[in-house]
Structure formats: C-alpha cells, structure tokens
Design brief:
Elements lengths: L2 H30 L2 H27 L14 H30 L7 H28 L2 H28 L4 H29 L6 H11 L7 E10 L2 E11 L4 H15 L5 E11 L10
Parallel strand pairs: 2-3
Antiparallel strand pairs: 1-2
Helix pairs in contact: 1-2, 1-4, 2-3, 2-5, 2-6, 3-6, 4-5, 5-6
Amino acid sequence: MDRYKIAKRVSLSGLFGNLFLLIIKSIVGLFSNSHAMIADAMNSAGDILSSCLTYFGNKIASKPRDDFHNMGYGKAEYIFSIFIAISMIYLAMKLFISTIKVIFNGSSYNYSIFLVIVSGITILIKLLLFIYTNKVAKKTNNLLILANSIDHRNDFLLSIGTFIAVIMAKYQIYFVDSLVSIIITFWICLSGINIFVEAYRVLMDRAIDKESEKQVYKIIDKYPEVKKVNHFNSTAVGYQYQVNFTIFVDGEMSTFESHEIANKIEKELMKIPSISLAVIHVNPIKIKKGPDNSN
C-alpha cells in the first residue's frame, strides 16, 4: 500500500468535490441572500485550500531521505497540517465577525427551492467524501487525510444545519440562518485547533504512544538474556517513530552473541506499524554468581 499515492487521490477528490460545491453554493447563496449558505460557500473555499495543502504536503512528505534530511521528509505532513489548521481558524474568525454584523444589522433572505437542492447535494457529497477519507485515514495513519476527513464530517453535519435553516426560512423564521452560521464558525475553529495541537505535538518530538511502548517491552521480555533496559526514548519521524534504548546483558557473553540478541529484537520491533527504526545499544553487566558447589 503506497500511502502517499492514496493521499494524492484523496486530496484530488476533495479538491474537485469542493470546487463544485463552492460554485453552486456561491451562486445560490448570493441570489437568495442566505447567510448560512454563503458561510457554507466560504467553508468550501477553505476546503479547497485544505485539499491543495494536502496535495503539496503529501508530495513533499513522500520524498525519500537524502544527505540533507537523513530521516526523510515525513514531517512535512505535519507542517502542512498546521497550515490547514491555521487557515480553518482564520476562516472561522472571519465568518463569526460577518455573522455578528448580520445579527445586529438584521437580515432576511428569499426562500428558494434551489437552496434546498444545493443543501441536499452538499449533504450527499460530503457524506461520501467523509466515508472515503475516514476509511483511508484509518488505513494510512496520515494526519493530512485525517484533517480532511474531520473537515468533511463537520461539513456533512453542518450542511444538515443549513438545510434546516433553509426550511425554516420558508416559514419566515430567519434567526436559524444566523444561528447555523455561528455554529459553523465554532465547529470549524474547534476542528482547526485540534489539528494544530496534534501536528504541534509531533513536530515537538512527542514520544511514542503508550500502547506501542508496551509492545516494545513485551518483545524485549521474550529474551531472558536481557537483564535490564535503560535510556528508552523515541523520536517522531513523519508518521512513525525511531526508538532508542540500551539493553544490559551478561558481561561474560561474547560480543557476537550479545549483538545477535539486539539484532533479533530490532527485527521484531520493526514489525510494529508505528516504528520505522530501532537502535539498540548493548552494555555488559556483571552477573553475581552463586557459590561453586562442585567440590
């Protein structure tokens, strides 16, 4: 499975899907003066930016390691995720200010069957995009795809809110339109903050998750020759981790035997999906022997 090729397909599907939604939402929203629909259109514009950032971030992250980047370019995935998060937060702030102005100045819009149709189309497309990206995100453990998946999920739920606001407008209940717009802004902002925090933690070299760490120690425990483990640490390398630690073995064991044990442990650790590299240092330790009763 090439996670980068899959991420490319995800970004392109999101790009074309959101471009289509942006066009129809903008046209219908402007003609009907629906603030919720215009907010939804601006959200689609932000989604297009997210898809573009996903595409370019994924392209950089897929580059193999070289002399200048010995660990590869995997962290580009998280750098671009931060860009997406910031764009989402900025968009939410702009929408919130715009909606507050509408609430104080007063606004109404003309109910149109086209508002209902566009809302229905948006709900369907966003549901399909969410199902697709969520499935891929779980398979690839790619934060960029996860960010897109969360965005599609939010859009699906909030488009239902827009649909309700449109129906309410038919009965001249217009406050729901602004209410839905405010909910959209807070949801976008919260999603952006969550993505930002996740990417920030990885870029700040967050340690490997506790479950994977338990798996590491479980493998080490299979080797009775290892008497002690020390200096365990891990470093994020893209979406995976490099783990380093020291094992202590009987000092009377030959160098070949002790390093052969380390090699076996390393091979087993590399089978853990979250680990890309294991570096084990071997130290000798003096083992207390019992009294010699041979005489």
